[in-house]
Amino acid sequence: MLLEIEGLNAHYGRIHALKSASLTVGEGELVALVGANGAGKTTLLRTLSGVHPATSGTIKFEGRDITRMPAHQRVAEGLIQVPEGRQLFGPQSVEDNLRLGAYRRGGNPERDLEDLYAMFPVLKVKRNQPAGTLSGGQQQMVAIGRALMAKPRVLLLDEPSMGLAPLLVGEIFNAVERLKEQGTTILLVEQNAYAALAIADRGYVIETGEITLHDSGAALLANERVKQAYLGL
Prior knowledge:
Elements: E1 3-12, E2 15-25, E3 30-34, H1 41-49, E4 56-61, E5 64-65, H2 71-77, E6 79-82, H3 94-100, H4 109-119, H5 121-125, H6 136-148, E7 154-158, H7 166-181, E8 186-190, H8 193-199, E9 202-207, E10 210-216, H9 217-222, H10 224-231
Parallel strand pairs: 3-8, 3-9, 6-7, 7-8
Antiparallel strand pairs: 1-2, 1-4, 4-5, 9-10
Helix pairs in contact: 3-6
């Protein structure tokens, strides 16, 4: 497995936010983590990326224990997070935001930029505009593009559909599906369970910090408990 989480715990003071969570992501897989607001989804991603410390448990990346590795080293290793809320540098141009994703690596950023513009043509049109002036959906494209410029081994996507109109949600998930088809390994954290599980190879359900279900994306979509709790069926 490319990414392995075993018995992971995390706290915010006395609050036990993540409780013995175990999860795996294989090379080229799209794995979805779904759950309600406050279930621990973002905490798990923040702990994976090193922004929040693990209390106990292990995180292995390509077979190596990175549980205590600083966040910037995890980025250099290829564990790249697209944060909830996008967190762009609003006054800077779209292209400057994208280029920031490549600052720790070599390669050919000009070619990578053209690849991104082929995926998100609207960003090429608006490449010189301040990123903060774009629509929510376009800003999400910039956030994903910035992460892709870092050449992720695993892309950690945190709530990419948050705050977007339904039409834009579909556009973002189409882009995520295209990345999957290109072989990008993705851990997708998402409150929109139907959209996430519909494109996932496998999925996990997290409730109050605990992972309670794990199956293929299709099987979870058909699961009566998931239908009632997350799909409104």
